[in-house]
Amino acid sequence: MNPPRCPRLPIAGWARWTRLSGVHKHVLSLTLLLVLWPSSARTHDPSAWGGLFRSRDHGATWVPANQRLFVGGALALAISPTDVNHLLLGTDSGLLRSRNGGRDWTLEAPAFLVGAVFAVAFAADGQRALVSTSLGIFRSEMENSWHEAAAPGGAAPARVIVRGAEAGRAYLAGWTGLSRSDDWGRSWSNTADGLPDGPTTALLVVPGSPETLYAIVGGRIWASVDGARIWASRGAGLSTVSVDALGLDAANSARLWAVGANGLFRSDDGGASWKAVGRRLPEPNITVRGITATEEAIVVTTDRGLYRSLNGGERWVLVIENLPAHLEAGPLVRDPVDPASLYAGFALVPYPELWRRAAEREGALARVNLTSVAGGVVLLVVVALGAFAALRWLGRYYRTTVTSVPATQNPRDRRIEKTPR
Q1: For a Cys-Cys bond, which of 65, 287, 297, 399 suits 54, CB 3.0-4.6 Å?
Q2: pLDDT tens digits for 273-316?
Q3: How many CA atoms lie within 13 A of 167 on its CB side?
Q4: Residue 223, phi then psi, degrees to nearest 5
Q5: DSSP code of 48?
Q6: Interval 30-58: pLDDT, tens
Q7: d(CA 99, CA 108)
Q8: Which helix (H) or strand (E) holds 374?
Q9: How far apart are CA 135 and CA 323, in angstroms?
Q10: Residue 14's pLDDT is what?
């Protein structure tokens, strides 16, 4: 009966390590360093990413509206006029649809709506929709059924699409130009005649008889009451201000709010005249993306985050709780039924950069850094060499063990046999 084996001492393994060549030692050491390098482990913090956030209390507190999804950028949001829980969210990676107010989302037509979705709008029936990608304008008659629309040149990527008061009417501010459709995207007509040269950066439809369409072109406010056929300037009191965003008061349809040059402005006569109110936003050279106003609060989304005021702009507070305050805030949409409910979007990549990439048809490969590619290749080569060296060392180790010890006898048995009795 053979006595039990003694465990192999660590020094034996070290002896074999010392017999490795210098190159193999360095490769194995570098590989172990890369594998075992300590790094912090973090759980997902929704406020560290872009995406869509919702508030039920006039912007005081916010929660993620896409909790189970990683959204790099929320670019546009549309709320169905017939069901406020029916949402369409344009993101940097496609179009998402929710039927339960953002608790669950499904990716819409991923093989057809490719890439970022920059603008989205529901029709009055709450079912049909229009969206813009970098490749064109698309329309749907029912859920998950999309067709490319014959949009005018320069329409994509659209900056904004809004629904008009008349059935089938939509207005589209393209990358260049402004267009109107009276058959929900089947055909379009140019409506930029009478406007100054330059892109239309914002649109606002105020229902009424007739409806009023407001447009911001080159930082100036223009208005039309005949379906964008004739335009008139509405900038009295704003002659030296470049306007960023325009919004309708939730309680007073004749009251408009505008933000530009870090200042807040109000009109109580439908935009005919304006006056400065409150104090300037605290950050210099800030760009405002959206504004909503109620009797309780004024909320603005900017390239420095989301700000809120409870006293007509006299004091502004940067809201950071559960929001990615380090990212740009973009679309700001108010629930059409509950004025206290707001949606705000954030993006990891600045919004102007996203539009620029789309307009210039810049693909993902064009944004790859040559240095990072070279670093990745070097890392792969080092890991491959380390694995090869490790396999060779293991092969030599086991071959030596097998050839030096008989199959029916171990080294300790031989030492016992040589011991004099």
Answers
A1: 65
A2: 999 999 999 999 999 999 999 999 999 999 999 999 999 999 99
A3: 2
A4: -140, 150
A5: G
A6: 555 554 555 444 444 545 578 999 999 99
A7: 12
A8: helix 370-404
A9: 31
A10: 47
Cα 231 to Cα 215: distance, rounded to the nearest angstrom: 9
Structure tokens at 310: 């409870």
The pLDDT assigned to 397 comes to 66
Distance between first and last Cα of the chain? 17
Tokens encoding 178: 């402004």
CA 331 to chain centre: 10
Residues 251 and 142: their CA atoms lie apart, in Å, by 33
Question: Order of strands, edge to edge, in the sheet holding 317-319?
Answer: 288-293, 298-302, 305-309, 317-319
**Residue for token digits 């809120």?**
308
Distance CA 382, CA 419 (A): 49
**Tokens encoding 320:** 């950071």
CA distance 305 to 117: 22
Query: How would DSSP label each residue in 145-214?
Result: EEEE--PPTT-SS-SEEEE-SSTT-EEEE-SS-EEEESSTTSS-EE--TTSPSS-EEEEEEE-SSS-EEE
CB 181, CB 170: distance < 8 Å = yes
pLDDT value for 239:
83
The DSSP code for 4 is P
Half-sphere exposure of 282 (CA within 13 A, CB side): 12
Order of all β-strands in the sheet with 170-173: 160-163, 170-173, 178-181, 189-190
CB atoms inside a 10 Å sphere around CB 9: 9
The amino acid at residue 330 is G
Please identify every stretch of the chain with a pLDDT value under 50, giving residue numbers as ranges. Answer: 6-12, 14-15, 17, 35, 39-44, 46, 363-368, 414-416, 421
- Supply 239's token pair: 């002659």
**Which amino acid makes up residue 55?**
S
Q: H/E element holding 399? A: helix 370-404
DSSP code of residue 250: S
> What's the token pair of residue 77?
């949001």
Q: What angle do CA 55, 59, 63 make, to 5 degrees?
A: 35
Q: Is 201 exposed, middle or buried (0-12, 13-18, 19+ CB in 10 A)?
A: middle
pTM exceeding the 0.85 threshold for the entire prediction: no
